[in-house]
């Protein structure tokens, strides 16, 4: 045994023999640090990146504990260990590995989740496996079955995978209560958590154990991190590549840079932040036949498995992915990670780049490819903070009242009758609910009683089940919100572009709004709630549009945004002294991991700002600028703080002006669309005079008018069993808000908005620093380079400049494959249904030879009948006239008329208008048809 393998000596002989069979020569650093406390039975939190052997780190001591049980006692137990993972689709590689260990050691390992068959479930209840791999929601279901509860009484070990992810969600809060319910059944058991790098491992350890004490075993990733930031410059050949990829030279330079990095390494993961970026960038690689696969959560399971296997086998040089690859999917050894655009968070960068090199305890190698100044500064700050171990906290959900409401009925079923005191004691053992008051618990139980979910006997202070308890529990096993999905349909092609979740549609979607999906910009034409469809049309000139919404953005933390402000603050006086940009870049290169060209490109933003004689926004200086009705508050405080400050400003300005104030925020700016008469000085005055103690009240008041609160209110109400009061009545958000405003349901909905989207205390701190003179507010009466850079922040850079060309081609292909009815209005005997592409240049009737052939929609048999009818009513006369007009167009213009008449909503009058433009350019002809189709889609609801 090698010296490094000494950590394996804490394991018994059976497990050590299996290690040799498995090819384990020496433990990883993670295993060396964490095996001893886990083998000693301590509660342990293992903090390390994916790919460092965390699963075996946790499970080898667990397997060892199970096999050391006396042979005659084996098989007399129920479940001895649970491995709980938040992944909805259980990791097949992890399952295969655990199965192998089980077979080697004579232990039964099985899986239970939503797709497990009834036969398998029954078998597990009657003959529990030694180790069960399952999900948080399935644990909830298991706690309701009598046989399963008996099997759980033998529980000795619980391993929770991706515990950092659970800590930041209500799923995790629910699980902490479930762990306490398990302890009621089984008595104390060992808890082991597997986590990515977090800034507060002690808090995550307390989350896991309920504050019972926890050995923290953390692998320092920053010291073994080799990350560089590169903003590609356009080089010779990028123009040619741009024309080949139907994009601009800047985007072509990004594609070339990534391909160069892939070529320099054996196996490369390429992370992007959104699925639409993955699709758009992936399409470029596909056009170039670059040997790079695409992997994200919207793809089918079969497609994901196929690309994983091909990458692992070396058939692909690179794998383009979203957060789907942050988790422990085994795709073989990775020697480099590319992050396209800023990863937004330190923890995310560590988790992603940490996938490279760790199988051999090597340095993790990665490159962040950035796209503009804000992106570069942000990535530099994140890379520096990652190297120095300055990681974000886990953002634990504290005191979620809907989780309390969700768990009370299940606990009542466990005990049949339980006192408020016993309930309170159980909840407060779970870390997120350690501060739950009896008053809040009583309010939740009273609400559940009113909704007939449980019975609360206030005279004796006990909670009991009712006839509706069982039904509620089984309908609410999960804290994942049930959200409807809307199909996004392109009105031009009739094809599905993608999907949008209900939250987006409720909060944002209305006619005229612009958003990004599939790497392209789309304008909403109509929202059909009955059909759950959002109809859209492509934005033909992306360069002239700013999307109102760009997808679910990862929020940039305040600390990262403030460091960007500090970088500007360091550069500004040097540019004021007219120092050369190269010299400033050289100084920055001593602190930040980028070459001088990349640093110089980003610093040009600050240099231009100084040359405009504008004050530079920093963490100690807010700059209010504007022209016309668009004001920008330059404030580098991160997404959530700026969203909160923006709500305060828009609400107070709106009250003063008696008009709505438009609001958009990013980590560095708050953009306000103000009514006429509002001055920049008023914005400065509000920042200087608003009482920081009033922030929460102002924001809550503004929320009452927001769809965001109403949407969350409906979700929380469902977890309280309250929505059944209004089932079938189509209750509106306003009615729901009025009915629930003084209930714990409302309190929880507000808490959740504050927790997920806002940073009330941080915003109040900014106003305090302004009040105390630690942060100045300056006004600049024009737009500045830093202020205007935000307007391009949300654009999907991969959207081609001439996206119109691909749209026109789609319309052309769709019309060519549409069917039409050809009908001879002369003899009225011949009729044929055929595809447009099969129609001859000048169609004629095979019966009579006439060229008076009407081209009609394939469902328009009524027009044929109207022409043939001996006597006609007014409606038939109209249809007859339309058929004869169509026939006249086809007789005069041949197949071009057939094409025009086949377009959607384009009747003979509009078809004639398009044809009479005498377009020689085929693309221009189809563009005119598309314009008519869009007008029809926009106005059809009024017809």
Automatic annotation (TrEMBL):
Family recorded in the similarity comment: Belongs to the Lhr helicase family. Lhr-Core subfamily.
Record flagged with keyword Methyltransferase: no
Segments forming domain Helicase ATP-binding: 35-216
Keywords of the record: ATP-binding, DNA damage, DNA repair, DNA-binding, Helicase, Hydrolase, Isomerase, Nucleotide-binding
Any one biological process term the GO annotation gives: DNA repair
Sample GO molecular function, one term: helicase activity
Pfam families found in the cross-reference section: DEAD, DEAD_assoc, Helicase_C, WHD_Lhr
Protein name per its UniProtKB record: ATP-dependent helicase Lhr and Lhr-like helicase
InterPro entries in the record: ATP-dep_Helicase, DEAD/DEAH_box_helicase_dom, DNA/RNA_helicase_DEAH_CS, Helicase_ATP-bd, Helicase_C-like, Lhr-like, Lhr-like_DEAD/DEAH_assoc, Lhr_WH_dom
Domain (Helicase C-terminal) ranges: 254-409
